[in-house]
Amino acid sequence: MSSLPPSIRRARTEDWAAIREICCKTGNSGKPIDPLRWPFFGELWVGPYQKLLSDWCFVAENDGQVLGYLTGCPNSAILDCKKALLFTPSLLLRIFSGSFVKNNDTRRFIRRTLLLEKGPEARFSKGTHEILKREYPAHLHINLDESARGSGLGRQLQETFFEVLKKKQIPGIHVFCGAAPVPFYEKTGFSVLEKIEFAPGIFIFGMTRKI
Fold first, then answer.
1. Are residues 66 and 59 in contact, defined by beta-carbon separation less than 8 angstroms?
2. What is the DSSP letter of 14?
3. Which CATH superfamily includes the segment(s) 7-210?
4. What is the pLDDT of residues 33-62, one digit of tens each?
């Protein structure tokens, strides 16, 4: 690795393969998921931001290597509408046409798209969703390569994103996460708005931060 400090910059076209790789290498609570899951998993979690919000995404780079990324959104409600029109139908078509290995990920996506099953975010209370829409409309996803954890890059990615949100006068931001990342988010100014038990012993946290 170069002796120069890592830099934070907006994601470029050539970065998305590395972003998807890091997404899949950290998709199991910070550990890699099964390689057979990578194509669909990467498309599900990274694809909407690459296709619809690429200007709001950032990477941490050192010596030409992407060490981490932040996929961001200034208004979650607007993104949900855009995904419903411009992303989800084509992803469903690709599943049914055999572009992806059929597995629990694809089956879960189909069930949730058809409203046959509620995902974690949909389990939160109506009151929480109203607060998020009104006061904390932005959201982010952030992941770092294992070699970069504890280096401060996660905080730097966040601070870069927060500055952009501030310039756009976005009032606040939220994240949904499991228990493991909660201490990190608390250290960077987030607090827990609501906590749900998604499955026995599995808790999901809705966290918020003013910009």
1. yes
2. G
3. Gcn5-related N-acetyltransferase (GNAT) (3.40.630.30)
4. 999 999 999 999 999 999 999 999 999 999
